[in-house]
Amino acid sequence: MMRMVRILRDLLLTALILLFLGLVVVHLDKSHEEAMSGRPRVIDGDTLVLDGKRIRLVGVDAPELRQVCRRDQQDWPCGVEARDRLAALTGDAPATCEADGSDRYGRLLAVCTVHNLNLNAAMVGAGYAIAFGDYETEQDAAKRDHLGLWAGTFDAPRTWRQTHGGMDETSHIPEGWLGTTITRLGDRLTTLLSGLWND
């Protein structure tokens, strides 16, 4: 029995090493990424302008400015509040955005930070945007705690756009999705291996 456990442990360790090497290879070429910094102008809950370039926060979808949601049995301007929340998070501080591609409307798809705060994750975590290809963990926490949109009822922003003649978008799958997947698999394997070694 112990021999089988050692063989299984060695196989898992080999798989972990191969996944790590794959992650290194995926992240070696970052030359196509575009980084920019400066004071952003917030357009709505998931769009801002920086250095004259329109940037869409990748992996999230916030209500449109004209979108109205329901909370405490009343209408509330969730689109305006989402924009205001993003503006409050950015404040007067400079933002750094790392874009990795663009959407079909020519907006750069980026992860943006202010003072090391990931704006994409913060918007979903506060309940003012929903996961749109990433940030499911933050969304689960916002749902559980009934934050922002999750404190009432709302149409998903994509559904709202479709019924109100807005731009149609599909979920964002960042170009680095393979690296993210490998990282998540590596984390799970590490947890599994830790359990085996501790037995």
CATH fold descriptor of the largest domain? OB fold (Dihydrolipoamide Acetyltransferase, E2P)
Q: What is the total tally of β strands?
A: 11
Domain module tally:
2
Shape: globular
Query: What average pLDDT do the residues reach?
Result: 83
Helix count?
6
- Gap between N and C termini, in Å? 13 Å
Highest CATH level, the class of the largest domain: Mainly Beta
CATH architecture of the largest domain: Beta Barrel
Helix vs. strand class: alpha+beta
**What is the ordering of alpha helices and beta strands?**
HEEEEEEEHEEEHEHHH
- What Rg is obtained from the alpha carbons, in whole angstroms? 20 Å
The biggest beta sheet, please?
7 strands, mixed
Low-confidence segments, given as residue ranges, are: 26-31
Q: Helicity range of the residues?
A: 40-55%
Instruction: Indicate the proportion of strand residues.
Output: 15-25%
Which keywords apply here?
6 helices; 199 residues; seven-stranded mixed beta sheet; globular; alpha+beta; OB fold (Dihydrolipoamide Acetyltransferase, E2P); two-stranded antiparallel ribbon; single chain; 43% helix
Question: What's this entry about, in short?
Answer:
This protein is an alpha+beta fold and 199 residues long. The protein contains six helices and eleven strands.
Walk me through the structure.
The protein is α+β, with helices and mostly antiparallel strands. It contains 6 helices and 11 strands. Strands 1, 2, 3, 4, 8, 9 and 10 form a 7-stranded mixed beta sheet that branches. A two-stranded antiparallel sheet has the order 5-11. Strands 6-7 form a two-stranded antiparallel ribbon. α1 packs antiparallel against α6 and α3 (119-125) packs parallel to α4 (136-144). It starts with a helix and ends with a helix. Mean pLDDT is 83; it is low at 26-31.
